[in-house]
User: What shape does this take?
Amino acid sequence: MGTKRCFALILSAAFVTQANVAGAETLVLNSYGGPYEAIIQERIIKPFEERHGIDVVYDAVGSAQQDYAKIKATNGRPGFDVAVMTASQSLQGCKDGLLEKLAVAEIPNLASLSPGLSSAAGPCGAVHEVQYLSLLYRTDKLTSAPVSWADLLDPQLTGKIILPTFQNIMAVYLLEMMSLSNGGDLIDNIDPGFDAMAKVSAQSVGFEQSSAILESYVRDGSVWAMPFWNGRAQLLVDEGVPVDYIRPREGTIPLIATLNIPVGAANKDAAVKFIDFFLEKSSQEGWVTGYRVGSARTDIDVPAELQRRQVQSVAGDKSLHLPDLMLLQAKLPEWAERWERDVVPHAN
Assistant: This one.
């Protein structure tokens, strides 16, 4: 083959490859890093790409609150097509007109979700997992297992606690549970919660936003107890880290996690396909067994031992306290300022 013909064929192949890449459908997914990213890549993203031929660009930047702030600041054009957030942002985004309403006609698997959980997330959110705020502790460090949120004030935990920053919804839920446990409530009478959190802060070594960083403290044994999502806690248990976790006797708050589409998303068709894929029975089974969380689908097949420690429904479970999420969202700016003023300065 002549040199000119060989060069022409190579050049032609390059143009074809570029055309295919340029024509490929793309989805930008904003979510979390750490174990979450590794598991979602394996259990959801890779099989989705294989089925639909859509390239997923993974954007592991920001908390749910920060993600929604970006959606709001850009008037619904944040640069990603699907955001993993919580029911609070989902409800607020619907109210603000910044998130797309999701319909069964386009996303058939929405019809298979628990009506109670779907209602809690509102018409703009697809509930893809459910967790709860647990109390995680080192089994090899504490003389006895904790049973209550008040056990965070045990003197043996002085300097052995790490707390989330207020930008992590874990901090908000812990504040509310400390309020409820000390004579207050989840929204209107929150003063007992701030008083209690000032004392817990004095027991702590500081604050971190990322769950992955929070987790590192308990892994290396420098921290003996902390609030943590139960799914992430179960991953540590399964890995053999000397930890366990409880749903304290005062109860806890469920985390209803949602998939949302900003109104200005560039790839809405791909976003709809991704959400429907994530909600499929087989996808939910893969996600629940991989990330160790609960599902809004009641027809999935998962091990009984895993189901026992997960949230299956918020209805009728007296150990779960679900605040009015719209009121909560409205309170967050005020509470954030108070947290920085009244809680953070007490940390060691």
Notes: Confidence is low (pLDDT under 50) at residues 1-22. The radius of gyration is 22 Å.
